[in-house]
């Protein structure tokens, strides 16, 4: 262990009294120590089955939690697959694995099945890890732990600095991780991302226990680990940036046709859809409804860099949308499955609007007393649903059952039920 790591071991939390500072920043007098090199150096990238088998054996023989991270190529490649997986465990050291070269990592996932995984912002990495056969049964999310503990800044760099007193270099977070071979500075950055995750986990566990919130965190972590994969989003084309400008159904059809064609091309080329055609160009074409290739080429996003053949493809998509019969045009908006937008409550149901106002004020006050974000105390959607359709007979048991039915954890139900009973009874 280096001198810098000795320093981390001597300072369990660098903030006043071991608690998140009230003023929104660290009150530690010591300057953060730059963390420049992994303690055992940069490990070689594991890119074949023989090297992977050695990693599996080493991590199976390790002890304690395993730090896990994954790097994607968002904005460069299609989808959210992992292009590098980093792990660290006591007794095994750090491993950098190329999941593209190695393929399925189920054997590694299996030997770590009964181990607690430590991730930062777990919900971001779990989908791409699941794709390669790595699914934790237990986890500790250091970002979520920081939120529950009341830290105002919960990015990995900020947490490592405020809690452990080290500064991480974060300059490579948005690079193209599909690059091969990966440059050494990127690999150093990747290895350092898991270097102190277990140390951070241990310090945050102590802090959560000190605040009486450790059981809350455990329930949240269990909920993340047991959550099924997200369902595919319905009508993803409706999330095109700038859609608020598109008001006519024929124009919506153009957005849909262009979005779907762009997605097919991006998937075939394995590039980010935005590199094929921008959202702004899709919306502009929908608003203009160009009649031919020349009119399309005059629009922003379809300029001189777009070849004639490509322009013809995009114009064909526009023409398909323009030729659709009225009955096949998409409807404005999506079917509403929950309450209407809160801004419409006062007109639609003034009593519900009053309930929501009281509930939001009560939840806000409780979250402030508990020193955690409101959305972590209870999701705003859950509050809206209970206020829009409250139990017929308002009671603690009925409200608690409603909250649990919407997925609230036991700790949330216990804390929020009295607040909502009061709001619904006012």
Features:
two-stranded parallel ribbon, six-stranded mixed sheet, alpha/beta, 426 residues, disordered N terminus, 21 helices
Structure description:
The N and C termini lie far apart (60 Å). The chain contains 21 helices and eight strands. It has 426 residues and is α/β, with parallel strands linked by helices.
Arithmetic mean pLDDT: 92
The gross shape turns out to be flat
Radius of gyration: 25 Å
As laid out across the biggest beta sheet, the strand order is 2-5-4-3-6-7
What percent of the residues sit in helical stretches (DSSP H or I)? 40-55%
Structural class: alpha/beta
Number of E-type strands:
8
Task: Indicate the topology.
Elements: H1 3-10, E1 33-34, E2 45-46, H2 49-61, E3 63-72, E4 82-90, E5 93-97, H3 99-102, H4 106-111, E6 116-119, H5 122-131, E7 138-141, H6 142-149, H7 156-164, E8 166-167, H8 184-195, H9 197-211, H10 214-226, H11 249-269, H12 273-276, H13 279-288, H14 293-297, H15 308-323, H16 345-348, H17 350-370, H18 374-377, H19 380-388, H20 396-405, H21 410-425
Parallel strand pairs: 1-8, 2-5, 3-6, 6-7
Antiparallel strand pairs: 3-4, 4-5
Helix pairs in contact: 6-9, 7-9, 11-13, 11-15, 17-19, 17-21, 20-21
Brief overview:
The chain is α/β, with parallel strands linked by helices and 426 residues long. The chain has helices spanning 3-10, 49-61, 99-102, 106-111, 122-131, 142-149, 156-164, 184-195, 197-211, 214-226, 249-269, 273-276, 279-288, 293-297, 308-323, 345-348, 350-370, 374-377, 380-388, 396-405, 410-425; strands at residues 33-34, 45-46, 63-72, 82-90, 93-97, 116-119, 138-141, 166-167.
